[in-house]
Each structure stands twice: as structure tokens, then as C-alpha cells.
Amino acid sequence: MIQTIKNFIIAWGSIFKGSAKYYLWLAFLAFLMAIGVHAYIGQAEHGLIMTAMRDQVSWGFYISNFTFLVGVAAAAVLLVIPAYVHHDKSIKEIVLFGELMAITAIVMCIMFIMTDLGQPLRVWHILPPPIGLMHWPSSLLAWDVLVLNGYLFLNIIIAFYILYKLSRGEHYNMKSFVGFLIYLSIPAAISIHTVTAFLYNAAFSRPFWSASILAPRFIASALCSGPALMLLVFQVVRKVTDVKIEDKAIFKVATLITYAMAVNLFFLGAEVFQSFYSGTAETASIHYLFFGYNGQTNLVPYIWTAVISNITAFLLILNPKTRENFVTLNVACVLMIVGIYLEKGMGLVIPGFTPDALGEIYQYTPTATELLVSLGVWAMGAMIYTFLLKFAIPVYTGKLRFASSGKEAIHEVKAVRPHVEEVPEEQL
Amino acid sequence: MKDKDEKKIEKRELKINRRALLKGALAGAATTMLPLNRADASFSDFWESFFQKHFREMSDAEKKKVVERLEREYEQKYKKAIKIGIEPAMPGVLFGYGLDLSRCIGCRTCVYACVKENNQSRDPQVQWIQVLRFKHGELMHWEKADKYYDPKLVPEPGYFYMPVACQQCENPPCVRACPTQATWKEPDGIVVVDYNWCIGCRYCMAACPYGARHFNWAEPGIKSEDINPNTHYLGNRPRYKGVVEKCTFCVQRTRKGRYTACVEACPVGARKFGNLLDPKSEIRYAMEHKRTFRLKDELNTHPKFFYFFDFEAGERFTG
Q1: What would the pLDDT profile of B83-119 be if each residue is shown by its tens digit?
Q2: Is residue B90 part of a domain?
Q3: In sequence order, which residues have a C-beta less than 8 Å from that of residue B305 and are 6 or more positions away?
Q4: Domain extent at residue B247
Q5: Considering CB atoms only, which of A55, A135, A199 is closest to B180?
């Protein structure tokens, strides 16, 4: 056991070793993070007045990013179900990368919440007693804290257990405890995005959020944007590392996205019809979103970019010819990510507050501080995912194998970096 | 060789400096986020401020100690003695409010009386009362209301006015939403906030149907001479950057049997206040004799704030 822990620690050291390109990439991310930290220090000093949020629109770009990323985290389920429930071999080979992305996305969610807090140092008040005074089960935000952290730990345990098994050249058993956790991660993934949708539903005086289709729409859109992001990442991974990801796996995920996008567009249509046919005062928000209200049209470009992106992406991914062509597939993926990012971010949060509770229209556009802080968080997320991949890939490809004590070491190892089996004491 | 050594030392110094700088920056960032006057705060005050318990979890002795520390901090900050009361709710009291829409002339005297009494930030402006102007025939069509009206003279023909502040719901959505229980309903029905427990997530603001909760987007800006030194822990004591605040029915006054500042200030007597459990109170009289209604009653928030139209006064402004 101790040997295993030691091995893991040494293997973690490998994340700091790489080619010049790798260092350049890390330096680039570190630069973006520094910009973000700088912007955040300004916000911490002067307060959230540095953002464009005000009493009328009290949540903005940070919570928009948070909502989108909950979807990305939940989307791992699109790989987990075929991999573990249907034992699809080609998907099983890539599911690990999905789980690592889920971990990254949740960490980013937590960072976005932290940047949004007025009193971030008091965040421990949200923990259950005796530390804090978590308002559970009444507050949906308390639920969100529970499910997000639960999902985070589930994925950490699962991903690292699989890596541990792989590092010893063994296979994990679905009938074991971790098998149970993997099954548990399926409803957990659905729950994080459902609870996040309920968070908005629970603010029941905001008609835009009080639609029972909100949670289903959240899930449908998450199953588009998250896997689309993964498809792009898979292609990068197989290009820059020696991980083999079959085209078959990628096209299979693309097919699943097609279904999700069809459902997503259908739900959108259902909501649009219901709102625009009635045209009651309660639908002012969705009017504001799509066409502007009283000549105020801030969100109109966002939502139409989103709608056009999503429809174009759907058409591209629906046609087998364009779906199985990497150029058009990637265009579709990018359009989908942009579309859902706008629709599940700004397009969801801001209209909820516009018009505000007393009918005022406050036009929200994020400030430089908000954009730079968010950029920093995204860079941080990219760095975390890079590190996770850097650690996981040598184990995954079999370049890195740990010797278990007593047994003979497994040697498929060509370029052992790091070589962990017999580490001299003084190096530890 | 010597050169090399020197370089080494220089490098090391640089490293230390950088580390010190980083430490300083972190500590600086931490203190700016704590509700303290950084320059004068002692370490123990800093510690106690960080680990201060929720108001309702404190014993009487702990409350006393916390109040003493806060008074000390406020005095350092505002160079003025500020008294923080912790009077509990009186038994047998449930506060209620009445507002006569046919009398209100939209002069906003109540708004500024409230700002003064309750130590709201002047820069940036925080106002707990918002007065909406409606055209005749458009009552409560919120999207058509205007709260930035600015005529030379009020009332304006063809319009009427509706001041809105916290409706002190019996079933408050904000309290349900708060993830840390930093806001709650007191036994006398007032919804209050512990400004030292609020984490500033603003979920309560999303939940409130009346736009009654306000956030301190920046450090509240009040001049020392403008501070009202008679405060309550759950009411008008000075707030911090990054926390939510709201109308408390002037808890610092009403728990001592006084009227709220807005009731006292209203020049036309449109505002009524009293104990809903006392059949002889003004508010009960209004409820029994006027045609009252409550805002967004269909949300089942059960406000304790009643609007009404007076019989004769209704004719006064229709001409």
C-alpha cells in the first residue's frame, strides 16, 4: 500500500516533465491564470461592483459559466452508460477521459461559485453543522453543494481506482464496490444538472425559470455540449500522445449527440411555442431574450447565435456524410459548444432577471473584470485537465506500470518516464 | 567565482522578496475580504471576526462579547460611538404594515427617511423602499411601471404611486432559499439578515418576488456624521461589502414601541403600522375597514404588508 502511494506520488512528478511544446502550453495557461488572478484581486478589493451585476440582475456571467459547466460535468454519463452498462468496447476505452473531464468541470464550477460570492472567506458557513449551518433540505443551493461535491468525489474515486488497477496491469471488476460506485455515478450525473435546474425552478417568482421543461432541457443540452467538447479533446489527445482512440468510438459518440440535439431542439420549440402563442405579461423575459423588449435588445444577438449554431450543428451531425467527416464533425462540435454555452449561460441566467421582480429592464453586459476572471478560471480548468491527462495517459497506454511488492514487475515499458519500480530510498 | 556567489545571493534575495511579496499579497487579499478595519484590527479581533458564530447560535454572553467587539470595530472605522442593540422580539407581537395607495403622492420622503434611519450606503446608493409610478388603469402591470420618474411636482395627473419594500412574508421565499440560514423570520414576523453570516451568494435576491433585497456591491459609503448611532444587530448597524440587506420594519425602533421611520416621515399619513395580534391596533382597523390586498398574493408568500384604497380619498386624485 505504502509502495503504491509512493509510486503515485512519483508518477505525479511526471506532470512537470515534458517537451518544449508542453511547457509552452503550461506557460500560456499560467499567463492567462495570472491575468485572471489580477482581475480577481481587483474585484476582491473593490467588491462585486467591478462586475456589471446589480440588484436587478444579481447573477451574471459567473453563474452562467457555472451552469454551462455543470452540464459538461454531467455529460460524462453519455460515455459511462454505453461503456459500463452496455459494455461497448470502443467507448470503454475512452470513458476514463470523460470522467477526468467531469472532475475538471466540477472543480471549475466550484471556482465560478467562489468568484461570485460577496464574502468568499465565509464559504464554510455552507457546510453542515457543526462547522457551518447548511440549510438543507430547504435551500436548493445546499442541495447543489451536496450533489456537486458527491459527484466530484465519486469521479475522483472511480477514475483513480481505474488508474490504480491499470497501473498494476489488472482489470477492475464491475461486481466490486467500485462497480457499484460506477453505477451510482449515472444517476449522480443526472442529479447534478437536475438539481441545478431546480435551483432556478425554485426561484418561483421568475416566470422564465418556472418552466417544468427546464430540467429536461438542461439534461438534453448537456448531452450535446459536453460530449462535443470531449470529441474535440479526444482528437487532440490522440494527435499529441500515443493514445489510440478509434474513429468508431468518436462516431458512436457523435451519433449519441445527434439524438440529444434532436431532443434539445424539440424542447426549445415546445417552450418557444408555449411562450409566444400566449404572449402574456409573464412571457416578457423570453420576448426580451429573442426580440428585445421596449427597444432593449442586449440578449438578442446571443440567443440567435445560439439557435443558428445549434440548428446548423444538428444538420451537420445528422447527415452521416458530414458526421463521419472530421472537418464538418469538428465544425458541428464547435458550433454546438458555442450554441449551448450562450443558451445555457447568458441566455438562461439573464432573462430570468429581466424584467426584474418589479418590472424594470436592466441591460446586463459583462465587464472586463468578469471576462478576465472567467478566462482565468477556464485557463485553470485547462491546466487541471492537462495535468490529469499527463498523469493518466502513461498509465493508460501501459508505459507506466507499477510493480506490486513480491510479484514480478510488469514490463511492457519502453520509455519509462518515470521509472517507478525500484526507487532508491534517497530519492523519496 | 566570487561573481557567481554574488549572483547566487542576489538570486536568493530575489526569491525571498518574491515570496514575501506573495505572502503580503495573499494576506492583503484576505483582509480586504474580511469585514474589518485592516489597519487597526488586532489579531484576536481578526480571528474572532472570522470564526464568529451565527447570531442565533450564540449564548447571551457570546452575543454581548460579539457586540462589544463590533462596537469597537465600528468606532475605529467611523470615528464615532455606535450602539448595537440585541433586543429580542416582544411576546404576543406580530408586526404588520398598511399603505394607503389613494393617499400616497409619490414624494419619496419615506425613501430618504429610511436611508437616514437605517444607515444605507449613500455611495453607491442603496434604498430599501422603491416607489413605482403606474398610469391609471395599469396597476401592477410591472413592466409598465416606472421607478425613475422625476417630475417637478408630485402627484402628477393620470398617475398613482406604489412604494414597495420588503413585504415581510409569513412564508418568505428568501429564507427558504438561503443556503446558510443567514436570513430568517423572527418571532415578531420580521425577516432579518445576520450581516456577519451572509456569504453573499445572492440566491435570496433571485428568490424574492418583490425586489426587496439589496446587495452591497461595494464598500458601503456613508460619512461619519450621517451615521445613525442607535442600531440593532439585526437591523440598521453598518453593513459590509458583499452582504445582502433589506427592510427590517426598523427593528431598532419598533421593538422599543416606536413607529418605523417611514411611518413617521410620510407627509400624507399613507403609512400605517402596528401589531396584527392586537385587535385595537391601527393596522387591524385598516384591515377591517379598508379594501386591502397584498402584492403577488397568488405566490402564497403571505405578506404582512397590506395595500388599500381609502373610501373618500379614492375620489381625491381621480379628477
Answers
A1: 999 999 999 999 999 999 999 999 999 999 999 999 9
A2: no
A3: B96, B97, B98, B99, B165, B166, B167, B168, B294, B295
A4: 95-316
A5: A135
